[in-house]
Amino acid sequence: MRTTNNRDIHLNQVAYKPWLAAALDLGTNSFHVTIVDTRAQPYRVLFRYGQKVQLGAGLDQANFLSTDAIDRGLNAIQIMASQMTQVAPQNRHIVATNTLRVACNRQDFIQPAEEFLQAPIQVISGKREAELIFAGVADELASHSLGSQDKLVIDIGGGSTEIACGRDTPKLLNSFPMGCVVYGKQFFPDRRITETALQAAVDAARQCVSSQVAAYKQQGWQLCIGSSGTIKALATLSGKQQQGLAMVTADSMANIEKRIMQFGSLDEVVLNDLRSDRWEILPAGYAITLGIMQAFELSELYFSSGALREGVIASQIEAQTKPLHPCVKVLN
Questions:
Q1: Which of 129, 195, 203, 204 has its C-alpha lying 20 to 30 A from 184's C-alpha?
Q2: Which CA distances in Å does 90 have to 161, 259, 321?
Q3: Cβ atoms within 10 A of the Cβ of 15, count?
Q4: Residue closest to 22 by CA, chosen among 11, 33, 12
Q5: Is residue 263 pLDDT above 80, yes or no?
Q6: CATH no. for residue 220?
Q7: What would the pLDDT profile of 202-218 be if each residue is shown by its tens digit?
Q8: What is the pLDDT of residue 317?
Q9: Which CATH number covers residue 80?
Q10: Residue 230: is it exposed, middle or buried by C-beta count within 10 angstroms (0-12/13-18/19+)?
Q11: What is the number of alpha carbons within 13 Å of residue 196 lying toward its C-beta?
């Protein structure tokens, strides 16, 4: 239920600090905000906050977003707006991804959300999302020995999966219609975890990307980086590291599958290594990751904490923190 008036957030507004910039990612599964000090080179992260919203769970078959999902999202937006009070509105960079790309009634969410945030929301295309994710990973790895290598970057979201390939900038990028929230609904509709359901999800993920694999292989890469919450969770469960980066391997994925199959349903998943909001979406996220690894013949996958928000911040610092867009726009 929406209870806070957007004016309340700004009534006692302290002076804006012009060196602060914020990136807010309105994802299918969760919303995340990052606030940075741009005076430092590289920029210094001051604050990170994420909240599980599962906005995409509110989409029906006609891509109509439910009132309950909109309310969950707006409640999270109010919290995040209250954390950005020292950031000037023109330095609040807000991007929305798959759910708001496809929702036919997205303005029912965007209009009140913009009032709370006092800044425009940019609904970005899947390819633009992939481009920004790649920029975030490249920025994060800039000082690492692996940063100068050709990279295959994979980000598994709640509603879509982005894959980009390049060195400093992406030479090839695509967005695929699969994510851990969407696959959770599609392949585990009764919430039961079975070998049949898990294998069906793996096969679907592999098939989803298969037509593009040859193009990526032609482009080539030296290492593969995952940047999503799914990859972070799998790398945590894997417990493996190399060159200072957490990673998953084919062997560790097999062990993770054994742990997943110990549970009879999504509601029974309890993995104390992970935050509880990752538990029920892990089987679907695992299946998508494994399907991609099989399709691309990957034996290992590193994790980078750089992703969409970091790409947004890096691109805006480069553009001298100018607003992304003066109004909401869907990019195709």
A1: 129
A2: 29, 46, 8
A3: 7
A4: 33
A5: yes
A6: 3.30.420.150
A7: 999 999 999 999 999 99
A8: 79
A9: 3.30.420.40
A10: buried
A11: 3
